[in-house]
Design goal:
alpha/beta, Rossmann fold, 2 domains, 6-stranded mixed beta sheet, 5-stranded antiparallel beta sheet, 11 helices, 11 strands, globular, binds adenosine-5'-triphosphate, ATP binding, ATP-binding, ABC_AA/LPS_Transport, transport, L-valine transmembrane transporter activity
Length: 290
Amino acid sequence: MSLETTMNSDTILKVEHLSMKFGGLMAINDFSFEAKRGEITALIGPNGAGKTTVFNCITGFYKPTMGMIVLNQKAGKQYLLERLPDFEITKHAKVARTFQNIRLFSGLTVLENLLVAQHNKLMVASGFTVLGLLGFPTYRKAAKEAIELAKHWLEKADLIDRADDPAGDLSYGAQRRLEIARAMCTGPELLCLDEPAAGLNPRESAALNTLLRSIRADTGTSLLLIEHDMSVVMEISDHVVVLEYGQKISDGTPDHVKNDPKVIAAYLGVEDDEVEDVISEVESLEGGVN
Ligand SMILES: Nc1ncnc2c1ncn2[C@@H]1O[C@H](COP(=O)(O)OP(=O)(O)OP(=O)(O)O)[C@@H](O)[C@H]1O
């Protein structure tokens, strides 16, 4: 489903008045934010704040109780994601995602995982017939291009030397990069990453940051990530949105959010009326250190 509305072309994603209710629990309550094209936007917040629920609404795994989610493609075509089934969100709106738990085909090789991701393209080239098996020229050309694209992303993810190894043999950090490479092979306009740094050691975390930065620099893909690792968030994000109990409590640059009293209070778990005390304590500690 597509529509034409006036929207700033710099905006890739606009979430408006999103609410999601599970029985009596209001997991997301009137949440709005925008992600800019070509930027890395991070969605952060304490455990249970509603981050994964927002992701699931954007990627079609949940249908929100209320609200609108507009995906604004580079060419100007817009999609109301809350009305689309998940496979159309991937295929037409060009939103790809990774999961908190790695979901690779562990028995297939690293390269094969990236070719499976391009299955749709190859099926079209085969005319949905046995032409592929018979080596029809259009299919051969598409298959060659698919391998080239896979190799490109294996280079970017620093996995080219492991192309023929089973994906299950890779280290945890390498599997995370493979998942991202696989998502990039689908040519997404928006890539949603659910805790990409979870469980990574500092070296793997640095390799992940390099990959995400190169995606931002070299492709038109915008990134939206949920992340608990603040060093990753503060280092690579252009824009940070903070959720607490399903509501937005802060929105801005990493520096703005880091110094926002509401965010400090949310992470320290203090009540609103204690925020000022916490801030002055933090400031006096900072004064002491400097
Ligand atoms: N399918 C569901 N059914 C019922 N409640 C749910 C469901 N999914 C999430 N919730 C509830 O919604 C709230 C938000 O959960 P969510 O997983 O979105 O938070 P989160 O910020 O991603 O947390 P974490 O950082 O721990 O992953 C929680 O109270 C959770 O228990």
